[in-house]
Amino acid sequence: MEKFTSFLKASWEEITQHVTWPPFNELQANTTLVLVGSLIFAFVVGIMDFVFENALNLFYQSF
C-alpha cells in the first residue's frame, strides 16, 4: 500500500508542478479544431458509404 500512496503523491506532484498546461483559449481552439475535423471526417465516410452502397446495389441488381 505504501508504494501505491507514493505513486499517487508523485503523480500529483508531476501534474501540479511539472506539467505545462495550455491556456484556456488555446485549449478551446484545439478542441474546436478536433470537433470540426471529426465532423468533416464523419461526413466524408458517410458519403463514401452512401456511394458504395448504391453502387453495389446497382451492380447486384444487374444480375
UniProtKB/TrEMBL annotation:
Pfam families attached to this UniProt entry: SecE
Keywords: Cell membrane, Membrane, Protein transport, Translocation, Transmembrane, Transmembrane helix, Transport
Subcellular location: Cell membrane; Membrane
GO CC field: plasma membrane
Quaternary structure (record): Component of the Sec protein translocase complex. Heterotrimer consisting of SecY, SecE and SecG subunits. The heterotrimers can form oligomers, although 1 heterotrimer is thought to be able to translocate proteins. Interacts with the ribosome. Interacts with SecDF, and other proteins may be involved. Interacts with SecA.
Gene that encodes the chain: secE
GO terms, biological process: intracellular protein transmembrane transport; protein secretion; protein targeting; protein transport by the Sec complex
HAMAP family xref list: SecE
KW Plastid (keyword) present: no
Membrane topology label: Single-pass membrane protein
Record's protein name: Protein translocase subunit SecE
Function per UniProt: Essential subunit of the Sec protein translocation channel SecYEG. Clamps together the 2 halves of SecY. May contact the channel plug during translocation.
GO molecular function: protein transmembrane transporter activity
Entry similarity comment: Belongs to the SecE/SEC61-gamma family.
Transmembrane region(s): 32-52
Species this protein is from: Dyadobacter chenhuakuii
Residues annotated as signal peptide: none
